[in-house]
Amino acid sequence: MSGADDSGGDGLPAGVQRRPIAGEERLSTRGEPVYGEPTDGDWRVWDAGRSKLGAMLELGMDTGLDGGETVLYLGAANGTTVSHVADFAGPTYAVEFAARPVRDLLDACDPRPNLFPLLKDARKPETYAHVVESGCDVVVQDVATRGQAAVANRNAQFLADDGRLLLAVKARSEDVAADPASVFDDVRAELAEQYDVLETRRLDRYHTDHLGIVATPSR
Fold first, then answer.
1. How far apart are CA 42 and CA 58, in angstroms?
2. 23, CA 20 to 30 Å: which among 39, 171, 177, 208?
3. What is the dihedral of CA 168, 54, 159, 75, to 10 degrees?
4. pLDDT digits (tens, 9 = 90+) for 118-149
5. pLDDT tens digits, residue range 42-76?
6. Is 115 within 8 Å of 108 (Cβ atoms)?
7. Exposed, middle or buried: residue 219 (CB in 10 Å: 0-12, 13-18, 19+)?
8. Under 8 Å between Cβ of 201 and 61
């Protein structure tokens, strides 16, 4: 867990702060840089323009993150966001399907012993169920593929009863021609098979045609 001087504020988890970096208050975590982000000592900017979860935090969504959580991250890509998550979380499992970005992800994992890369397909959780511990506190999902709600539903098995799904839905990945609002309605309806949706918010300030969703497993 983070020390007292790392305590969050403004609803941020411990280990995440808004700090004056490069002349402005920026969301930041303490860890080794990954993608050329500005730094101030041990702290590095969490660029919301490159991170859907960062955007959700910047927009004040109630993610339920406190710091120290066990996290399953779906769609880790090059490690941009999941590296920030690992800076303040506990064990963090990073699932990515494409081999090329996993090479960069491995570099992000190197200084983070709590970050575990998995070259797996998030649509097939049975392929990593033997590795990821059950009862995870959080599933973060940023998977640019058709069937994003189905991916979230299949991975609900890993969440604790009071865990959180933090989902970034990309409308254009579902249907490039459809109205994003209609796509988001369909995703919410499908999520209802496994989750109770607690909060939704458009992320357009940072990511066009994206919706942030906070949900918890249905009881």
1. 21
2. 208
3. 60
4. 999 999 999 999 999 889 999 999 999 999 99
5. 999 999 999 999 999 999 999 999 999 999 999 99
6. yes
7. exposed
8. yes
Q: How many residues does this entry show for the chain?
A: 219
CB 211 within 8 A of CB 184: yes
Tokens of 46: 């969490």
How many Å apart are CA 154 and CA 152, to the nearest integer? 6
Residue 131 token pair: 């590795």
DSSP readout, 99-164? HHHHHHHHHHHTT-TTEEEEE--TT-GGGTTTTSPSSEEEEEE---SS-HHHHHHHGGGGEEEEEE
C-alpha–C-alpha distance, residues 200 and 203, integer Å: 9
What helix, strand, coil percent values describe the chain, rounded to 5? 30, 30, 40
Tokens at 133, concatenated? 């511990």
Report the predicted TM-score, pTM, of the whole model to 2 decimal places.
Answer: 0.94
